[in-house]
Fold this sequence. Notes:
Blueprint: H1 2-16, H2 20-50, H3 54-57, H4 59-88, H5 99-122
Helix pairs in contact: 1-2, 4-5
Amino acid sequence: MIDKFFKPISDLIGRAIPDKNKRMELEASIKAQMIDLQKAQADINLEQAKHPSIFVSGSRPAILWICALGLAWQFFLAPLMNWAVVISGSSIQPPVINTEGLMTLTLSLLGLGGLRTAEKWKGVARNNMKEENVKDVLKP
């Protein structure tokens, strides 16, 4: 993935620095920095997922639920509603949702969800929604 983003940078470096050795050193340094940034983002994501607050750790699940509801509407509920509208003789048109963005977001999140499934298989998944993990403030 780094190579995809690095190619334009590499082309610019190739034009700006004619010395092959210096160019290779600079490219290696930039790639190392990009890898370090990706590792740092992964660490941030892990810490965020560990957070006990549902508002911090639950952002990805919330987005996934929004995507699931949008896709359920578009591919299940809207066709049923269209069928009901035709049968009733009404001229109501249910809203159409642009699912291109939803599909991209959903598939991206499901890729991350695959990692969650792997955690469950390995037995290292955590469950912070157990009652003993909920703060006393939230208990009735």
